[in-house]
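Practice problem 4.
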């Protein structure tokens, strides 16, 4: 069920992006792998936390998508996988 929901959301992003592109609106999705946070560390104590996506770096990346660098990026599903 989880994978079906993710696939549905990805298709929703791409469909919505296509529908509003003529209005100069860009819609993209960021797809992070494991985010380095307290709960994930508790749930996976034996994992290598150094390979996980750091929340601050993820935020910086998302913020960059709000600027001119992403003017031509629309309907993209952007993986952010750290070092996994």
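Answer key:
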């Amino acid at each position: 069920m989880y994978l079906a929901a993710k696939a549905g959301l990805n298709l929703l992003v791409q469909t919505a992006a296509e529908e509003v592109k003529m209005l100069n609106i860009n819609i993209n999705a960021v797809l992070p792998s494991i985010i380095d946070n307290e709960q994930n560390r508790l749930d996976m104590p034996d994992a290598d936390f150094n390979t996980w996506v750091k929340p601050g770096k993820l935020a910086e990346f998302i913020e960059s998508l709000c600027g001119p660098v992403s003017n031509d990026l629309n309907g993209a599903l952007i993986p952010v996988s750290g070092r996994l």
